[in-house]
Amino acid sequence: MNKETVLIPLYKIQIDKLTIQYKYYTEVTIPAKTYNGVTNNTKAIAVKVSLSVNNSILKIWFTI
């Protein structure tokens, strides 16, 4: 069974309103062909994420 993905783009005014009100949102463009059946770039919002760790985690990552 083939499933087609449908992305609903946001208008610039919607993106601006959300990113001004919620500082953790940022404007992004989902490139065409990222998902099956999506043939156009799609304007959207994403959540900004930061990862903070102390130095000991780096020792674990680099010894695996």
What features would you describe in this structure?
A two-stranded antiparallel ribbon has the order 1-2. It has helices at 12-21, 55-63, and strands at residues 25-30, 42-47. It is flat and about 45 Å long. With 64 residues, the chain is of the alpha+beta class.
Quick overview:
The protein has 64 residues and is α+β, with helices and mostly antiparallel strands. It has 2 helices and 2 strands; from the N terminus they run H-E-E-H.
Write the topology of this structure.
Blueprint: H1 12-21, E1 25-30, E2 42-47, H2 55-63
Antiparallel strand pairs: 1-2
Counting helices, strands and paired strands, the structural category is alpha+beta
Please write the string of helix (H) and strand (E) elements. Answer: HEEH
- Global geometry: flat
Annotation field: number of helices: 2
Multimerization state: single chain
Helix content: 25-40%
Mean pLDDT: 86
What is the number of strand segments?
Answer: 2
- Cα end-to-end separation: 40 Å
Instruction: Output the radius of gyration.
Output: 18 Å
The major pleated sheet works out as: 2 strands, antiparallel
Question: Per DSSP, what share of the residues sits in E-state strands of 2 or more residues?
Answer: 15-25%
Unreliable runs, pLDDT <50, ≥5 residues? none
Neighbour order of strands in the largest sheet: 1-2
